[in-house]
């Protein structure tokens, strides 16, 4: 769940990782937007055909931006950047 | 069915309609709970911008109106439940919600559904590429996260959002490669005359169009995206004239496509609760039947704002206000005379704006030729990868209803539960059998409305806590 950013602490740049790649991004901003600004749009693959997929609706409906944050299922459009979070692709079983 | 006697007054959706309804109910001295899936109220139009967006996007009325709404809520006695999604509802109007503290149940004796709109999407080959995003999504990305979908953006679809998003791409310095509009130029010109009655919207539309024209951006009317291909330097976008074969225009080196074909009311809750719905042929969507105050066919259940039919933010505020007063009246907090006095002026304003909004509806609709133009190899259901050809073959063997299509092909059975493909599937099915779209029906809503983490449902329990029924005798 996105947490409110503490006052005076807005958008401090913090390290995190995506698929093992070291990233840097403003704390509290939506993950999908921060990744897009870094040129990353493919967040996972379709479990049906293996084609790359990414955030489509940006409002929690399409389910295509599902990722794992520190091992827990999350939506990249709703989740926010936190220090040292490890983001990996979600693999549907 | 009579309304439940116990439970709270609950508003679902913290957009302009829901927030206004909740504030109005609260002003009449009634306790009210506002359930909103966003961390901060505002809905989609008045969604709270992130700090980054506040730095990137020039101040605008959506930010200031949203801030005002959030300040009013903060100063009110409305109990807000932010970051909380409704994932189910019982026939007795007990809402199942998932919030920051896990799952909870909220019994409602009066329920105001103000969960806004969902985007209508028309599939084309290549639309599953992650560089292709929804138009409403693009607007959220631009306005509320201050992020460009790409540097070179094609904007495609129908309705005013098309020009609004094109304008939003240009604001922070993005390049709009082309605007691909399904509507006719004449439709927009005719609309201009109607908009004279709504100067605020006319001014805004004029500002968008002037900006696009001055920048020399190609605007193609009566066109749609034929296909998007991944090429070495970006996406290659083929554009067709609707009703004609072949490619009319081609744009290369595109790094984002934003597409959306108008909006439709989100009817998940009202349909699950069995309220009567009607098909609005002008808008091409189902909406709950409501009286002029938002009461549905079910006692205690209200629908307001865009959830009761797409009319835009200004109408949503007035509708929310009137529905809020109606709840107060039905709860006995005010008299019928108070109600008439309080709603006289809002109703007057509403009549004028509602007329303008209704005139815009056909511009948001999608016609049969657009669905016939969807190529056989286009994936309609993104989750289950069901192509248009499969839907057409299924229709040819006798399927006439969306739920049949779903059972036979898995279209709409994936994790999005048909939210992305329902309009595409309905349109392809109806166009291939020459059916009116409403006869193809809708996917039946299922609980949970979105995938739930199993851990949220089960909580912590021991194996011995599970009640085991006695086995039946063999």
Describe this structure in words.
The complex is a heterodimer of chains A (93) and B (474). Chain A is mainly beta and 93 residues long. Chain A has a single domain, classed as Roll (Ubiquitin-like (UB roll)), CATH 3.10.20.30. Chain A contains one helix and seven strands. Chain A has a five-stranded mixed beta sheet, covered by helices on one side. In chain A, strands 3-4 form a two-stranded antiparallel ribbon. Residues 1-9 of chain A have low confidence and may be disordered. The mean pLDDT of chain B is 93. In chain B, α1 runs parallel beside α3 (61-75), α1 (16-27) runs parallel beside α9 and α12 packs across α14 (422-433). Chain B has three domains: 8-118 and 265-361, FAD/NAD(P)-binding domain (3-Layer(bba) Sandwich), CATH 3.50.50.60; 121-261, 3-Layer(bba) Sandwich (FAD/NAD(P)-binding domain), CATH 3.50.50.60; 374-440, BFD-like [2Fe-2S]-binding domain (Arc Repressor Mutant, subunit A, Orthogonal Bundle), CATH 1.10.10.1100. Chain B has 15 helices and 21 strands. Chain B is of the alpha/beta class and 474 residues long. The interface between A and B is large, with 39 and 39 residues. Chain B: InterPro entries: BFD-like_2Fe2S-bd_dom_sf, FAD/NAD-bd_sf, FAD/NAD-binding_dom, Metab_Enz_Cyan_OpOx_G3PDH, Opine_Oxase_asu/HCN_bsu, SoxA_A3. Chain B: This is FAD-dependent oxidoreductase. Chain B: Residues 9-317 form the FAD/NAD(P)-binding domain. Chain B: GO terms for molecular function: oxidoreductase activity.
Concise synopsis of the structure shown:
The complex is a heterodimer of chains A (93) and B (474). Chain A has 93 residues and is mostly beta strands.
């Amino acid at each position: 769940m996105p947490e409110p950013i503490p006052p005076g602490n807005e958008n401090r740049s913090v390290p995190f990782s995506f698929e093992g790649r070291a990233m840097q991004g403003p704390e509290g901003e939506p993950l999908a937007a921060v990744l897009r600004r870094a040129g990353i749009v493919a967040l996972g693959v379709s479990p049906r055909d293996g084609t790359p997929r990414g955030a489509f609706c940006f409002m929690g409906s399409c389910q295509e931006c599902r990722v794992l944050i520190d091992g827990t299922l999350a939506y990249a459009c709703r989740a926010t950047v936190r220090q040292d979070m490890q983001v990996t692709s979600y693999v549907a079983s | 069915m009579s309304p439940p006697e116990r439970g709270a007054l609950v508003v679902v959706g913290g957009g302009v309609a829901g927030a206004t309804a909740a504030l109005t109910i609260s002003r009449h001295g009634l306790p009210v709970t506002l359930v909103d899936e966003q961390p901060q109220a505002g809905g989609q139009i008045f969604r709270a911008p992130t700090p980054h967006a506040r730095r990137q996007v020039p101040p605008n009325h959506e930010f200031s109106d949203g801030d005002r709404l959030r300040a009013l809520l903060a100063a009110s006695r409305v109990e807000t439940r932010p970051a909380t999604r409704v994932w189910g509802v019982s026939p007795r109007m007990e809402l199942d919600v998932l919030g920051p503290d896990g799952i909870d149940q909220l019994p409602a004796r009066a329920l105001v559904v103000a969960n806004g709109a969902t985007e209508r999407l028309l599939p084309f080959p290549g639309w599953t590429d992650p560089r292709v995003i929804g138009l409403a999504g693009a607007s959220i990305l631009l306005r509320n996260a201050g992020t460009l979908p790409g540097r070179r953006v094609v904007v495609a679809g129908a309705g005013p959002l098309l020009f609004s998003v094109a304008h939003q791409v240009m604001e922070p310095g993005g390049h709009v490669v082309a605007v691909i509009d399904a509507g006719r130029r004449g439709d927009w010109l005719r609309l201009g005359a109607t908009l004279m009655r709504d100067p605020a919207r006319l001014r805004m539309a004029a500002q968008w169009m002037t900006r696009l024209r001055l920048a020399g951006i190609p605007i193609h009317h009566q066109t749609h995206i034929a296909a998007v291909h991944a090429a070495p330097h970006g996406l290659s976008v083929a554009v067709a004239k609707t009703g004609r074969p072949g490619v009319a225009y081609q744009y290369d080196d595109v790094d984002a496509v934003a597409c959306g074909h108008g909006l439709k009311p989100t009817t998940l809750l009202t349909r699950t609760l069995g309220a009567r719905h009607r098909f609005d042929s002008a808008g091409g969507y189902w909406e709950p039947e409501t009286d002029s105050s938002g009461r549905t066919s079910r006692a205690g259940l209200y629908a307001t704002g865009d959830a009761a039919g797409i009319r835009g933010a200004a109408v949503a505020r007035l509708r929310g206000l009137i529905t809020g007063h109606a709840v107060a009246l039905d709860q006995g907090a005010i008299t019928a005379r108070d109600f008439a006095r309080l709603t006289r002026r809002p109703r007057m304003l509403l009549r004028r704006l509602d007329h303008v909004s209704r005139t815009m509806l056909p511009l948001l609709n999608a016609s049969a030729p657009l669905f016939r133009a969807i190529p056989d190899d286009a994936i309609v259901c993104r989750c289950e990868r069901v192509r248009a050809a499969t839907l057409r073959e299924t229709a040819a063997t006798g399927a006439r209803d969306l739920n049949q299509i779903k059972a036979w092909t898995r279209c709409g059975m994936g994790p999005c539960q048909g939210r992305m493909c329902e309009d595409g599937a309905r349109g392809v099915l109806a166009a291939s059998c020459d059916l009116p779209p409403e006869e193809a029906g809708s996917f039946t809503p299922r609980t949970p409305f979105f995938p739930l983490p199993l851990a949220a449902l089960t909580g912590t329990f021991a194996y011995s806590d599970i009640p085991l029924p006695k086995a039946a005798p063999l």
